[in-house]
Amino acid sequence: MPHLIAPSVLAANFGQLDRDVEMLNQSSADWIHVDVMDGRFVPNISFGFPVLQAIQKVAQKPLDVHLMIEHPELYIEQFREGGAEIISVHYEACPHLHRTLQQIKACGAKAGVALNPHTPVSLLSEVIQDIDVVILMSVNPGFGGQKFISNTYQKIRELKALINAKGSSCLIEIDGGVNEENAPLLLSAGADVLVAGSFVFNSQNPTQTIQDLKQITF
Question: Fewer CB within 10 A of the terminal residue: the chain, N end or C end?
Answer without folding.
Answer: N
